[in-house]
Amino acid sequence: MKRYFLIFSAVYLVSTVILFALSLFVNIPSAGSIPILIAAGFYTSYYFVKNENRVPTPVEKRQLVFGSFICTLLVSGILVTIFLLAANMTELLFEGLKSISIGVILFVFAIASLIQILVLYMSYGWYAQKCLDSQHNRYIR
């Protein structure tokens, strides 16, 4: 699984950096990160099916989903930390967080996490099956 987490993380990292660079020139809404998650999940799912010639088993699917979710947290955390340190905005962040209750922060994190997990389940489930069907159709022709 480590190989797939590395692939997912690389695609997620590169896509996030590209989105950040684009956001300097174009106003991109905060929901712009969802296509990044879809791209990373779909590519990793495609790579899995291509290498294994099958869809992930339920246990593998769970491992891929939650491992990829952890990768998004790590990559995002590292990128945010680098940005805050480079822009010297850590104090501003902490002041802003003090004004928001922990309950609101946890609620927003839970909703965002649920959306990410659902997107990843779709990637390693529905999309993996589409990739396998496409792969079989190529061999039939």
Automatic annotation (TrEMBL):
The chain crosses the membrane at residues 5-26, 32-49, 64-87, 99-121. This is Uncharacterized protein. Keywords: Membrane, Transmembrane, Transmembrane helix.
